[in-house]
Design goal:
Blueprint: H1 2-26, E1 34-45, E2 52-62, E3 67-74
């Protein structure tokens, strides 16, 4: 019984991720001039036997003064 529950959760996660990926790829691509206005990083973990995890963030501003923050996480 436990096997079917674990398998169901894994299958659900894979299907959900695939549907989100497909939806994202079908969205129109919007190209607008923008400039990077800020950048920052956040490091967590790294104590004891755990490894550190760093996330990098860049904020872009488009001509209409709307700001978009993009993050990139690395191990």
């Amino acid at each position: 019984m436990m096997f079917f529950i674990v398998f169901g959760v894994i299958a659900f996660s894979i299907i959900k991720s695939t549907l989100q990926w497909s939806k994202n790829n079908n969205e129109p691509l919007l190209t607008v001039p923008a400039k990077a206005v800020t950048k920052r990083s956040n490091t967590s973990g790294g104590s004891g036997n755990s490894s550190a995890h760093t996330s990098y963030y860049v904020t872009f501003e488009v001509q209409s003064s709307v700001r978009l923050e993009i993050n990139y996480a690395s191990a």
